[in-house]
Amino acid sequence: MTAKRTRNWILALLFLGWSLGNLDRYIMNYAVLAITEDLNLSSSSTGILLSSFFAGYALMQMPGGWLADRFGPRKVLLSAVVIWSIFTGLTAVAWSLTSMIVIRFLFGIGEGGFQPASSKILSLTFPKAERARAMSVILSSSGIISLFIPLAAAGMLETIGWRMMFVIFGLAGAVIAALYWFFIKIPNHPLEEEIVPTRITTSTTNPQQNKGMFKALLKTPIIWNLLVAYFSIYAVNWGLSAWLPTYLVKSRGLDLVSVGWAQTIPAVTTIVGIFISGYVIDKLPKGKERLLGSVSCACIGVLLYLMFTASSVSAFIAYQTTVNLFIAFVVTLLPAIVLKQLPTAVTGTAMGIANTGGQLAGFITPMAIGFMVDAFNGSFDAAFWMLIGFSVVCIGALMTMNDKKGDLFKQSKEEAYS
């Protein structure tokens, strides 16, 4: 088992990388206001632009997880940071909608292997009893970035402009890649506590064996429940984060600086919610996580309705602050299920498969909202109803989740690879 000091150092570096990844994604939700003006984009075109990153990111989830399992997560992690940093910098030279979409798509391809590779590293360095808390630390980067990015974005957009801003973030990625190269060292074997059937392992010399592992995962029902749950909760998460700045400016009459201040309270709630969630999930008896996750999704649906029907901005922010707590629990719960219930040998691939659902949601939802806003003459009501529907779908995915049903990791190798 990796020494505690080393584990914490690795966790800190992963947190730094996740923070930069979230920064690159969230900053676009604010920069798009200036980009839309510069490139003269409609709401539909803006939606396509916001979704283009997630198209590449979703496509790379399964290959990224498979590569992390077969060739080692460190190589995938380094490659992801280098490639995404290059295309973050190239965002600054985009001259049209088409060029911006291509650059953001390739940016997504580059970053796609980062999440499954870093999850694989967590499973190799942390014991099961600490994995949800470790995951909550790196997931908290989302809340921390969303706390600072609104005001930082407003300041940078008004001073140096969106093009120079992306150049700076690209250079920051190069620094993080160097830190990973020199300081992230991980074991080449699972923790001793992991007992994995001999056939369900990864190999650098037997591609057919790796193919069998991938097929076995796809035949495991819990993977499909996770994929649907990931899609549903991230449809809500990315739908809100991608369009809230535009919604608050156009529908609620706020300026960009006011939006920044208004989003600080929900951001703090997200940070607190993720940290608490990691601790709670590690303490819950097996099976209870899904029940609490389903209750959280029900609360999300109710609060989304209250948000868009709120009579004032203050009431809207109050409901958003509360809904962020429940979203934080669900987005921490889903990767924790992968890390705690599936063998370490397949966590990279399993996380890649499950997270494909989340990133497909990131691709589809912002684009769908853009078309809805155009179709309903600037109204966001239909978009909110769509997000409420996704919260209901997430309840179904969690309630029907049963890791004992058809668990191929406990069946004979002949059945698993038939």
UniProtKB/TrEMBL annotation:
SUPFAM superfamilies cross-referenced by the UniProt entry: MFS general substrate transporter
Chief place where the protein resides: membrane
UniProt domain Major facilitator superfamily (MFS) profile: residue ranges: 10-406
Membrane topology value: Multi-pass membrane protein
Gene Ontology molecular functions: transmembrane transporter activity
GO CC field: plasma membrane
Keyword annotations from UniProtKB, A to Z: Cell membrane, Membrane, Transmembrane, Transmembrane helix, Transport
Claim: Transferase is one of the keywords in the record: no
Recorded superkingdom: Bacteria
Signal peptide annotation: none
Membrane-traversing stretches: 47-69, 76-95, 134-154, 160-183, 222-240, 260-279, 291-310, 316-339, 360-376, 382-401
Cited InterPro entries: MFS, MFS_dom, MFS_Na/Anion_cotransporter, MFS_trans_sf, Sugar_P_transporter
Subcellular location: Cell membrane
PROSITE patterns, per the entry: MFS (PS50850)
PANTHER family per the UniProt record, alphabetical: FI19708P1-RELATED, SOLUTE CARRIER FAMILY 17
Protein name: MFS transporter
